[in-house]
Amino acid sequence: MGGQFEIDRVGGEAIPRLAPLWDALFDHHASIGAAGLEIVERGESWPLRERHYRRLHDEQPWVSIHLAVRSDRTVGYALSYADELDGRSAVVLETLSVLPAARGAGLSTLLMRAVDEEAEAAGIGVSVVDVMGGNPRARKLYLGQGYQPYSESWMRSQRPGTAAGTHRGETTHDSAVLAERAAELGFALDFSPGPDDTWVSADRIAELAPASADAGSDPARLGALLDDLARAGDWTARVEIPSAPASEPLRSALASLGCRLSTERLVRR
User: Fold this and answer.
1) Most Cβ neighbours (<10 Å): which of 52, 95, 182, 214?
2) The pLDDT value given to residue 1
3) Peptide linkage before 100 cis (omega within 30 of 0)
């Protein structure tokens, strides 16, 4: 691919143009093992991702799409949006994708720079990105741009009826009761819409985020909570924990409970 890149900022009307670029990123994630979790069929992924982008476009203060164009062909994109982290305004780099033929020419850095410049112009000084587990190349790229480890998300998605997803015993379907039990373990329980656009998941995803310093200090009870969520129909759960090495015992416990490191959150302040 010859020629120079142009970076164009576009609006939500350009979302359909992102399909082949998202497919390229999906293929890359599949090639590196997708964090050891079962993935959806390739043809199912883009419609789910497109729905996610449109939901962001409707719900967030602003969503920004930067396209990388070479010789009238779109070869990469960065999609970011405004959010908050620890009470401060932040820009979340939701997706960064470059076609294989255009990689190695610094295009990812150019796209990140465009996102950073827009955030700076808006007075936003915190940047956030989530990297798939088992993707050291992407992690190295972001660390080289000044990002630092912040937290990890460990995911368990075990469909009912599978050997791993057979959960027995009495449980409650009362979300308030389950939230109280999560709080006792130091986690806030919330739910995000599913299914996920990369991994096989339930129609909604249980999100366990640390709410105290001792979150997850009782792995056995955490495992029981995950089982009860699954019996209640929420068989996909993500558990957020601090980045290693501080969380090393909990990381091992989550792995033993069938969770996998799905994403690592990196932050630059």
Assistant:
1) 182
2) 43
3) no
Full set of structural domains in the chain with CATH: 6-146 (3.40.630.30), 153-262 (no CATH)
Label each residue of the chain as H, E or C. Answer: CCCCCEEEEECHHHHHHHHHHHHHHHHHHHHCCHHHCCECCHHHHHHHHHHHHHHHHHHCCCEEEEEEEECCEEEEEEEEEEEEECCEEEEEEEEEEECHHHCCCCHHHHHHHHHHHHHHHCCCCEEEEEEECCCHHHHHHHHHCCCEEEEEEEEEECCCCCCCCCCCCCCCCCHHHHHHHHHHCCEEEEEEECCCCCECCCCEEEEEEECCCCCCCCHHHHHHHHHHHHHCCCCEEEEEEECCCCCHHHHHHHHHCCCEEEEEEEEEC
| One-letter amino acid for residue 60 of the chain | Q
Weakest-pLDDT range from 67-81, 90-104, 150-164: 150-164
Which tens digit of pLDDT belongs to each residue from 166-190?
A: 554 455 568 899 999 999 999 999 9
Q: Are residues 50 and 19 in contact, defined by beta-carbon separation less than 8 angstroms?
A: yes
Looking at residue 31, what is its pLDDT? Answer: 97
